[in-house]
Amino acid sequence: MPLPFDCRDGVLHVEDVALPAIAAAVGTPAYVYSTAALRTSARAFRAGLASVPRKQLAFAVKANPNLAVLKLLAAEGYGADIVSAGEMLHARAAGMPAESIVFSGVGKSRRELAAALDAGIGQFNLELEEEGVVLAAMAAARGLRAPAVLRVNPDVDAGTHAKISTGRKQNKFGVALDDAAAIYARLAGRDGLDLRGIAIHIGSQLSDLAPLEAAYARVGELVARLRAAEHTITHVDLGGGLGLSYRPGEQMPSPAAYGAMVARVTRGWDVTLLFEPGRFIAGDSGVLLTEVLWVKPGAVDPYVIVDAAMNDLARPALYDAFHDFVAVRPSGQRMTANIAGPVCESGDTFAMGREIDAVAAGDLAVFRTAGAYGATMASTYNCRALVPEVLVDGGRFAVVADRIAPEAMLAAQHIPHWMAEVEAAPRKAALRPATGRALGAAHRPRSRRSASSGRLGS
Ligand code: LLP
After folding, report:
1. What is the maximum alpha-carbon separation in the chain?
2. CA–CA dist 74, 93 (Å, integer)
3. Topology of domain 1-35+283-458, per CATH?
4. 278 in ligand 1 pocket by Cβ < 6 Å?
5. Which of these, 121, 209, 282, 380, could form a disulfide with 64 (CB 3.0-4.6 Å)?
6. Closest CA to 313 of 333, 293, 345, 341
7. Within 13 Å and on the Cβ side, how many CA atoms surround 1?
8. Could you tell me if the CB of 84 is within 6 A of ligand 1?
C-alpha cells in the first residue's frame, strides 16, 4: 500500500490527491488529513493492545476535535476522552455513544457535570475529593449513580516538555498517591457515586516507556491496597501519552512495545483498562499546507516567510516543538534557513538554521505531523482567518472545517449602543484637522472626490 503522504512524479500527495490541487481549491494555509493514515494508526494502537483482555479505547478529543475525524474514529470503535462540554458536544455529534465517553479535566464546571450526567456519559474521572462530593449529590438528586474513577498523581517525571507533563506532584492534576486511599474510602460510600477504579495520565509525547511503567506499577499497588480495604475495583484508566516521531529518524516506542509493557504490568489486575490516546492516533495523519510568501535575507540564514503562522500551528512557539518542513515539489536542492510566519512576534518562528528543501516565493510546502494539537489550538491572533481543515480519502477530498474569515469574526463583534452614539463626535474631530480636510486626503490626487472628502462624516 502506498504511504499516505508520499511524493509521486515529484509532487507530494496525500493518498491519491496532489497537494497543489488542494491549495488551488481551498487556499493556504490549510490542514490536510488522510483517512487511510487515521485508520492505520487507530488500528495499530488497538493491535498493540491485542494481549489486553478487557479494554476500552477513548480518543483524546483535544488532539483533534474535527467532526469528520471523530466520525472516522467512532467507526473504528473508539469512544472519546473529553475535557469540556464542548468536546462532549463534538463527540456526540460524531455519533460516539454517551457510554463510550470519559470525562477527564481538572476544572469541570457544575454546569458541565450536569450536562454530562444528563447525557449519561460512561465515566467521570475525578480530580479532587470535592468534585466527587458535588457529582455524587448532583447524581443522587437525579436518581442516578455516576460511574467514576479517582485520578491519582503518581509523582513520576514523564521526561517530556514541562508544559505537557502532568504526573509530578507539583502539577495540578489528580490527588496525591499517598492521599488516594483515604479519599477513595470517603467517596466510595456516597449515594449517587459508583466509584469503580483509578485513573492516571502522566504526560504527553512520551518517548520512554519507563516512567509510564513506574506510574502504572504504583497504580497496581494502590489497586491492591484498595481491594484489601474491601473496595470493588473494576476499571483502571491508563490515560494517553504515547509519543510520535516528529524528526526524521527519531525512534519512539511502538504500540506493540507499549502494549507488551501494559500487559506485563497489569497482569492479574482483573479490570477493564481504558486508554486515551490522542497524538498517536491523529498526529501523523495530518499536515499543515502552506505557501512560501517571501525568502528574505537574514543576519545568518535567510528567512523563509510562509503564510502559516503561530496562530495556525502553535506548538513550535509554545513548546519549541519540531515539525518537519517539506517542499510539495522538492527540487532536490537543499538550503539552510529560518522558517517564520507573518505574525508580529519573533516567537512566530517555526525553525532556526534548519536544513530544508530549497524553496522560493510561491512554492508550496507542508509542516508534517500536524494532525494532533494543530488546528484545534489555532487562534485568530493578528485578525488572521481560522485555518480550514480538509480530509482526503483516496482520490477525493472535502473541506471538513471552513476557513473562518475575518469578516465572520467582525460580524460576531458588537459596538455597544452607547458607544455608537458618543463615538461619532470625537472621531469626526480627529479626522478633520485644522484645515478642515480629512486626514489622508492630502495624499490623494485633488480630484473632486478628494476635495469633497474634507466634509467626510459631516
Ligand atoms: N488523557 C488526558 C487526561 C490528557 O490530559 C491527555 C493530553 C491525553 C489523554 C492525550 O494525550 P496524548 O495521547 O495525546 O499524548 N498541546 C500539547 C499536548 C497537550 C496534551 C494534554 N493532555 C502539544 O501540542 O504537545
Report:
1. 92
2. 11
3. Lyase, Ornithine Decarboxylase; Chain A, domain 1 (2.40.37)
4. yes
5. 282
6. 341
7. 8
8. no
For domain 36-282, the CATH architecture is Alpha-Beta Barrel (3.20)
Q: How far apart are CA 339 and CA 326, in angstroms?
A: 11
Q: Using the structure block, give the residue that is written with the C-alpha cell 529518524.
A: 249
Q: Identify whether 344 is a catalytic site residue.
A: yes
Domain with CATH 2.40.37.10 in the chain: 1-35+283-458
Partners of 146 in the beta sheet?
A: 193
* Ligand 1 close to Cβ of residue 277 (< 6 A): yes
Active-site option among 1, 228, 299, 344: 344
Give the model's pLDDT for residue 455. Answer: 37
Question: How far is residue 346's CA from residue 342's CA, in Å, rounded to a whole number?
Answer: 10
Give the tens place of pLDDT for each residue, 137-160.
999 999 999 999 999 999 888 888
- Using one digit for the tens of pLDDT, what is the confidence trace for 399-426? 999 999 999 999 999 999 999 776 555 5
Q: Are strands 30-34 and 396-401 parallel, antiparallel or unpaired?
A: unpaired
For 289-325, b/e burial (b = at least 16 CB within 10 A) is bbbbbebeeeeebebbbbbbbbbbbbbbbebebbbbb
